[in-house]
Specification:
Length: 284
């Protein structure tokens, strides 16, 4: 007889999950089990047992930076180069323009397009006819900052609902995975916590990962409470949860609720923007 019979998938997965203490108490013993940890903000101090140089970082800014990046690469952008400051982005684009084609300047400040830039931060602005073959120079309020915060990690990739399964497949076999949520202006946000919870739950289920800190546990609980009660996972349920988050409310207030619904779609994109160079941070 199966002890887990009849339980939703997430709870079956939880039964396989070791308690946090068993991981935290023995940091020096190499583990064959994937350790899954979360920072709900980029500047949260890292779990003591985590070694960034041996860990894959997954950066999350669901609304909207990492959703836009997945869309742009899915639509065959050549590469994405990110900067924290507008001035740095413009200077680098100017430099590139002198030796060849001018890259597209992309991004936002406080959800609004940046004056003089080619593209804002809506996934709808990144169709193939606009971005295919182009270098995109991106700066956003929180997302590109979170990417910079991941600089010391062994591998760095980005995730969103749009490429959730593809990103999960990319971490298969990694000994340690750390999700870094962008948040908004130093505040934890429900939208990034939701994706972190979905990712962590699926890592437990598909990669037999072990939940490694309380921020990961909180994310899993949030995902479970908002979206996982009735399986299969549905995009409308995710859209409702995203619209009921800080980022979702901000975007809806500015007339961009459609972007939120677009970012709630699951597995529409197979591309996983991955850091391939660090100075400047470049994703392909
Ligand atoms: C950010 O990086 O802060 C976000 O992507 C903001 C936005 O949705 O435009």
């Amino acid at each position: 007889m199966r002890l887990d019979g009849g339980l939703p998938t997430f709870w079956r997965a939880s039964l396989r999950c070791f308690p946090y203490e068993s991981f935290a108490a023995s940091p020096s013993i190499p583990s064959l089990v994937m350790q899954l940890t979360v920072s709900l903000l980029p500047n949260n101090s890292l779990p003591p047992s985590l070694v960034p140089a041996q860990t894959t970082a997954v950066v999350v800014d669901v609304l909207r930076a990492t959703s836009v990046m997945a869309t742009a690469l899915n639509h065959r952008a050549a590469r994405i180069v990110t900067f924290e400051a507008i001035e740095e982005a413009v200077a680098w684009a100017d430099e590139q323009a002198q030796s060849g084609e001018r890259p597209l300047l992309c991004g936002e400040r406080h959800c609004q397009p940046i004056a003089g830039f080619d593209l804002g931060n809506s996934p709808s602005e990144y169709p193939p006819q606009r971005v295919a073959g182009k270098t995109l120079v991106v700066t956003t309020t929180n997302g590109t900052r979170a990417l910079a915060a991941a600089a010391g990690f062994q591998h760095i990739l980005t995730a969103s609902f749009l490429n959730l399964s593809a990103a999960l497949a990319r971490v298969a076999g990694a000994p340690a995975v750390h999700l870094i949520c962008a948040g908004t202006d130093g505040h934890i946000t429900a939208e990034d916590t939701l994706l972190a919870g979905a990712f962590a739950s699926r890592c437990v289920e598909e990669h037999a990962a072990q939940i490694g800190n309380d921020e990961a546990r909180l994310a899993v609980d949030h995902w479970s409470a908002r979206c996982c009660a009735d399986l299969p996972i549905s995009s409308p349920l995710i859209a409702d949860a995203l619209l009921d988050s800080q980022g979702g409310r901000n975007l809806a207030r500015l007339g961009m609720a459609d972007d939120v619904r677009r970012c709630a779609q699951v597995d529409t994109h197979p591309s996983v923007p991955t850091v391939v160079a660090r100075q400047p941070i470049t994703l392909q």
